[in-house]
Amino acid sequence: MYDAELIQLAATEFGNFEVAEALIQKELENRPSPITYDLQAWVKFHKGEIEEAISILEDKVLGKTYEPVPAYHAGIILKEAGENEKANKLLNYAKEASFELGPVTVRDINSKLE
Q1: How far does Cα 14 stand from its chain's mean position?
Q2: What is the pLDDT of residue 1?
Q3: Which of 10, 16, 39, 80 has the CA that lies 20 to 30 A from 27?
Q4: Rounded to an integer, what distance in angstroms lies between the CA atom of residue 77 and that of residue 42?
């Protein structure tokens, strides 16, 4: 995932979804994996396409990777969709890897779990 950071910045910090989606499409063509699909779902979520993000998560991510970042993203997306039980399970799982996610992400997880 060579453009993962650029994709996240374009979508989450700058709201430039055209650039983010072009980059994610390139990544999916080159390296389709659960982690790449997670990033696609994250972009869709920030674009406001929550149902599409959940569909991607259910089809391509959940149960296919156990990395903490996709668990965090899925937890946030599902929490926003009102699926609190699933979301809390994923957020708690991600929180166990706090050393990988960093203090800012863990603080966000804790705020979502309250």
Answers
A1: 17
A2: 62
A3: 80
A4: 8
Closest CA to 113 of 57, 75, 81, 63: 75
So where are the chain's domains?
4-113
Residues shown for the chain: 114
Compute the half-sphere exposure of residue 111: CA atoms within 13 Å on the CB side of its CA: 7
pLDDT value of residue 57: 98
The fold for domain 4-113 equals: 1.25.40
pTM of the model: 0.93
How far is Cα 108 from Cα 61, in angstroms, rounded to an integer? 21
Q: Report the pLDDT value the prediction gives residue 3, as an integer from 0 to 100.
A: 87
In our burial notation (b when 16+ CB lie closer than 10 A, e otherwise), range 27-39 reads: beeeeeebbbbbb
pLDDT digits (tens, 9 = 90+) for 7-66: 989 999 999 999 999 999 999 999 999 999 999 999 999 999 999 999 999 999 999 999
Angle CA 67–72–78, to nearest 5: 125
DSSP assignment letter at 14: S
